[in-house]
Amino acid sequence: MHIVWEIFLIFQAYFICTSAQLISPKIHDGWWAYKDAVQGSFVPVPSFWGLVNSAWNLCAMGKRQSPVNVETSHMIFDPFLTPLRLNTGGRSKMGGTMYNTGRHVSLRPDKAHLVNISGGPLGYSHRLEEIRLHFGSEDGQGSEHLLNGQSFPAEVQLIHYNQELYANYSEAAKSPNGVAIVSIFIKISESPNVFLNRMLNRDTITRITYKHDAFLLMGLNIADLYPDTTRFITYDGSMTIPPCFETATWILMNKPVYVTQMQMHSLRLLSQNEPYKIFLSMSDNTRPAQPLLQRCIRTNINFSKQGRDCPNNRALRPQYRVNQWLLK
Ligand SMILES: *[C@@H]1O[C@H](CO)[C@@H](O)[C@H](O)[C@H]1NC(C)=O
Ligand SMILES: *[C@@H]1O[C@H](CO)[C@@H](O)[C@H](O)[C@H]1NC(C)=O
Ligand SMILES: *[C@@H]1O[C@H](CO)[C@@H](O)[C@H](O)[C@H]1NC(C)=O
User: Fold this and answer.
1) Average pLDDT, stretch 27-55?
2) How many domains does the chain have?
3) Given ligand 3 and candidates 304, 306, 313, which is best to mutate, with the most ligand atoms within 8 Å of its CB?
4) What integer best gives the mean pLDDT of the chain?
5) What distance in angstroms lies between residue 248's CA and the mean position of ligand 2's atoms?
6) Position 76 in a domain
7) What is the pLDDT of residues 64-103, one digit of tens each?
8) What does the record list as coiled-coil region(s) (predicted)?
């Protein structure tokens, strides 16, 4: 009896310990990472995002997750896709604050300069909320989206929210038709994109070396960031960070923009950490490609080849005729 009691006590102590451990992990909005930290404490990497927090279930169970690998041979030409319209309200120059968030280089336009996009696959006008950079530790990786299995050194994402239906980004991000993200691949060349050149020149990028560093930029023209093309690829997907809400319409521009090798190098020298912590490069801040499943990838590139049938491909869809008896 005595022994049994002791075992019970030990068991109880063990149970209290383990349940205390279960409660103690820092389950909060910021508790995730792209790669294992060198310090050794567990922080969930992309394959665990959907398992550690029930509010992030979509990251593991979602059926329209992003990013994806775009197989160009499977794209569907949709002749009803109009060109994307960029509206800067006649004022081409804007200001914005560039941040090191610890995970991305982020640029938020100031509230005085509203930029919105419409047209293309979008039924609503969407306001620019944030510009985000993803990049690799080597030139052979870094973009979140892949094109025929190939990644690019970096990808810039312009995140917009549906300003007609929702009051702000946080409300839109979790709601239907909430978000439109324009994605532009980045390649390396000696003649950089004018907009990225402003963000990534040495004097600017070195101001945000550490987490929470911020720097104000003026006189930016968002149109300068767009490559010279009206062609794009579009599909329905999700946020590429927790909680992976499936509310995003993705628009991938059909041409890349360029940064210099030196600018790529400066990006890799950004730290995920505060200055008093160990240097940990921000590079490889990418979520792996997710299964496409039943989704279609549409494009306004007329490669004059008929794709397979697709619910969104109105061109190939038979006309719907209402039953005559319904009208009587
Ligand atoms: C889009 O932006 C332009 C210029 O700022 C503005 O005139 C227009 O009203 C905006 N559209 C919507 C739906 O708010
Ligand atoms: C966003 O809008 C919702 C609904 O209007 C409001 O409850 C919420 O406080 C707003 N959030 C922010 C961050 O402004
Ligand atoms: C697509 O290209 C084909 C061949 O050039 C052309 O016949 C067709 O009219 C084009 N369709 C549209 C919608 O532009």
Assistant:
1) 84
2) 2
3) 304
4) 87
5) 19
6) yes
7) 999 999 999 889 999 999 999 999 887 778 999 999 999 9
8) none
**Are 280 and 36 within 8 A, CB to CB?**
no
- Can you tell me the distance from the alpha carbon of 258 to that of 187, in angstroms, rounded to the nearest whole number? 5
Q: Six-digit token pair at 198?
A: 């402003």
Distance CA 195, CA 224 (A): 5
Q: What is the pLDDT of residues 237-264, one digit of tens each?
A: 999 999 999 999 999 999 999 999 999 9
Cβ–Cβ contacts within 10 Å for residue 11, how many? 10
pLDDT for 282-316, tens place per residue? 999 999 999 999 999 999 998 765 555 555 544 44
Residue 221 placed within a domain? yes
Q: Is the CB of 150 under 6 A from ligand 3?
A: no
Residue nearest to atom 7 of ligand 3 (CA): 304
Query: Does residue 288 lie within any of the structural domains?
Result: yes
- Residue 114 sits in the same domain as residue 240: yes
- Say if residue 230 is in the same domain as residue 192: yes
pLDDT the model gives residue 317: 41
Residue 293's domain is classified under what CATH number? 3.10.200.10
Same domain, 50 and 107: no
Alpha-carbon span 18 to 132, nearest angstrom: 39
Cβ(154)–Cβ(134) under 8 Å? yes
User: Does one domain contain both 46 and 79?
Assistant: no
Nearest to 190 by CA among 264, 105, 283: 264
Q: Is 79 touching ligand 3 by the criterion CB < 6 Å?
A: yes
- Domain with 200 in it: 69-299
Secondary structure element (H or E) that encloses residue 2, with its range:
helix 2-23
Global confidence as pTM: 0.86
